[in-house]
Amino acid sequence: MRVRRRRTARPKILLALVLAITALLIFNWQIKPAMESETENAAKVRAVSIINSTVLDEISKNPVRYENLVHITRDSENGVLSLTSDVMKMNEFKSKIVLAVQKELQDHEDSSVNIPIGTLIGSHLFHGRGPGLNLKITLAGNVKADFKSLFESAGINQTRHRIYLTVATSVYSFLPGVESTTDVSTDVLVAETVIVGDVPQVVVDSKRS
User: Fold this and answer.
1) Which of 4, 148, 181, 197 is the least buried, fewest Cβ under 10 Å from its Cβ?
2) Residues of the chain whose pLDDT is less than 70?
3) CB neighbours of 126 closer than 8 A, spacing ≥ 6?
4) How far, in whole angstroms, is CA 5 from its chain's centroid?
5) Phi then psi dihedrals of residue 202, to 5 deg
């Protein structure tokens, strides 16, 4: 009787082993990539939202005037000779933004995202369907920022000069069995003005005092 029980149990153990291996393969080939993609997208959207809201909040608290960042030098006929950036003030503003964004990311470090099971299966037919699976994501990353200028025509003999702050970070998202790093970058308009007259091709020089 004992021998028969052992022989009867072997097929069940083999079946359980096959099912476990199959489930592991499906997870690695189908579900895990979908989880990585969804968590990366969620982390990216959340990080961009935090960056934009933080920069706009800082600007509303401490409004930035174009004249505080860039000095326009003109000749005797009111022609534009150069645009000179005040590096000290720009770096001071940039440092405040970086610290504020870093703090907000840390405050929102632990977040969650709800993903329908149909999406994790990876089938277009079931995408977005089924009960949601609440997954935890961790936002963490070093923040960098830099200014960039955009010049565009604003009419006859007029040029609009816009100054953007490009804020970038590498967001690290982690789930049990899934971890990834996503590069995030967004541009926020800081200041702008309309310059009357021809703008020289070399327009931004450093001004440290």
Assistant:
1) 4
2) 1-12, 14-32, 34, 109-111, 118-128, 130, 132-138, 140-141, 173-179, 200-209
3) 117, 118, 119
4) 59
5) -95, 105
Q: Which residue in this structure is represented by tokens 């709800």?
A: 114
Give the residue among 116, 95, 37, 75 at the shortest CA–CA distance from 200.
75
Number of residues written out for the chain: 209
The first and second tokens of residue 41, run together, are 């997208």
Q: How far is CA 185 from CA 44, 49, 87, 119, 172, in A?
A: 9, 11, 22, 26, 14
**Pair of tokens at residue 1:** 């009787």
Distance CA 174, CA 181 (A): 9
State pTM to two decimals: 0.67
pLDDT (tens digit per residue) in 45-80? 888 888 888 888 888 888 888 888 888 888 877 778
In 3-state terms, what secondary structure has residue 191? strand
CA-to-CA distance for 135 and 127, rounded, in angstroms?
17
Pairing mode of beta strands 80-86, 204-207: parallel
Q: Which letter does DSSP use for residue 62 in this model?
A: S
Instruction: Collect all residues with Cβ–Cβ distance below 8 Å to 188 and sequence separation of at least 6.
Output: 51, 52, 55, 56, 59, 164, 165, 167
At 206, list the tokens.
Answer: 């450093």
